[in-house]
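REQUEST
  id: r-88c1
  op: predict_structure
  target: N-acetyltransferase domain-containing protein
  payload:
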Amino acid sequence: MAKVASMENEINIVDAKDHSRYEAHDADGTLMGFVDYKLHPGVIAFLHAETLPEFRGRGVAGRIATKSLDDARALGLRVKPACPFYQEFLAEHPEYADLTKLPEAHQ
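RESPONSE
  id: r-88c1
  status: 200
  body:
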């Protein structure tokens, strides 16, 4: 039986560590968008998020942000949102606010 799925709903997010970026791919493996990051000890800085023009308006960047921030939390990393998209995303999603706070010892 052939798999029938809406291509727009199938977004696979992967941490492409070799390229220091999270990537979103559709069901065919086509790159839909990405966010570049830089790892520092205990910190991940999100530098530049981009959704390719033909995939805009489908929630791709939000899916990448959610996956990357959930991973950062799981790894115990503090987040530095250097990218305007991440700054806006974090402002709109207070459930991730704890990721941008400095540890108590540094305040």
